[in-house]
Structures are given as structure tokens and as C-alpha cells.
User: Fold this.
Amino acid sequence: MSRKELERSFRKDFVGDVALELFSSKPFERVSMDEIAQKAELGKGTLYKLFSGKEEIMVHVICRGIENLCRDLEEQCLGTSDVPQALKRLLELEYDFYTKYSNLVLKLVFHQSDNSESAFLDRVRVQHQQHIDLLERIFEQARTEGMQFRLDNQELIQALNAAIKGLMINRMEQPIQDNSREKDLELLNTMLWTGLLA
Assistant:
């Protein structure tokens, strides 16, 4: 990368960090490009040179989040022979990702149903597929180390995603409930690795 490309990449990442902070504090629709520019201390014109709009910023933020998640999964789950610890860490990393990005992930789902911004969505699909491929490698390594699952790898990934996303939606529907990270992770561990029926 040239110096100019590195600087552009750094600025985009900085704007992404600022936007994620704003998107986390209020609904996506209520965050404006003006607000992002102001918080990033950039002119609106400069912001539009980096991104075509807040949808592109959202996609950039989600893709960076998935990249970071994949890096952590590879280092902390594939990089260990302690399979139970690797699976515990996998749940924690996945849970933390969806907790941090749940508002944007839900917004992205609505965008997919609208069939809008397909070029942006294709970028997320590519990142998501890399994430799925990595999860398959982790589950395959667990099988090689002697772990036995009742489901195949794709079914395990579907169950993992459904359980975590379900908890996120439940949290949005019933925000008053006493939901803690530890309780949620204990429930996920029980559902996915132990089973709910004795």
C-alpha cells in the first residue's frame, strides 16, 4: 500500500470507529452523515470522499468487526489444543461480536430484504463466508481432537448463530430482564455443548 492508501485506510477506520460509537448509542436511522462528520471532526465533503453514505460506513464497520472476530478466533481457538477451552472461547468471541454489532447486523438483515446496496452487501457476504469457513475449521479440529458432536459442522454453525442472535433479539424485546454476559454464556454452553435434556 502506498502512503496515500494507508492514510485513506486509516481515516476510514477512524470514521468507522466514530460511527460505531454513534450507531451503538441510537438507532441507525437517527444517525446522520452530518453527525458522523462532526464527531469525527471532518468536513462533510471529506467524509463523502471516503464513503458514499452511512450504509457504506455501516458495511465497513461490520466487515472490520468480522475481520477482527476471525483474527481472534484463529489465534485463540485454532491456536490451542485444549478443545473445551477453545469452544468456550469461541462462544465468548461470537457472543461479544453480536452484542457489539447487533443493531447493525439487524439493520443489515433489513437491507438484504430490500435488495438495496447489493455491492455493499456482497462485501459483507464475502467476509461472512470467511467467518463460516473458519468456524468449520475450528469444529473440524475439535472432532480431530476427539470431541463428538451430534450435528455436522454446518448444523452446529446454524445452531450457534440462531442461539446467539435469539438472545440478542430477546434482549432488545425485554431490556428490563436481568441479562448478564455470564448468564447468557452459561445458557449458550448448556444449549450447544451439553444439551437441554438430561
In short: The mean pLDDT is 88. Helices lie at 3-25, 33-40, 44-50, 54-78, 83-114, 118-144, 153-173, 181-194.
